[in-house]
């Protein structure tokens, strides 16, 4: 039972961190208009900064949460 709990922490923590990094990458793609993302998603210029800030804030919060889960899993191995 405890082994499953430890493995779930690792899987969810790594998944959450991966999702967070993808949010941050999407925010950077939007901000610098790499591969014409703004036009393909039909994002108006006035709302661009709002979307970038929301994605970055969500990304950083998820990174911290995911890394805490992975760190807790790491500490439980000792």
Keyword list:
78 residues, mainly alpha, elongated
Q: Can you put this structure into words, describing what you see?
A:
82% of the residues lie in helices and 0% in strands. The protein is built from three helices and no strands. The mean pLDDT is 91.
SSE arrangement, N to C: HHH
Strand content: under 5%
Estimated structural class: mainly alpha
**What does the main sheet amount to?**
none
Q: Provide the gyration radius in Å.
A: 16 Å
For the secondary structure, the number of strands is: 0
Q: How many domains make up the coordinates?
A: 1
Outline the secondary-structure elements:
Blueprint: H1 2-32, H2 37-40, H3 48-76
Helix pairs in contact: 1-3
Please provide a brief summary of the model.
With 78 residues, the chain is mostly helical. It has helices spanning 2-32, 37-40, 48-76. The model has no long low-confidence stretch (mean pLDDT 91).
């Amino acid at each position: 039972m405890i082994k499953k709990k430890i493995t779930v922490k690792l899987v969810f923590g790594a998944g959450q961190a991966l999702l967070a990094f993808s949010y941050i990458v999407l925010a950077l793609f939007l901000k610098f208009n790499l591969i014409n993302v703004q036009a393909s998603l039909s994002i108006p210029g006035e709302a661009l900064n709002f979307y970038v800030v929301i994605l970055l804030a969500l990304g950083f919060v998820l990174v911290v949460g995911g890394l805490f889960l992975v760190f807790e899993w790491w500490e439980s191995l000792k």
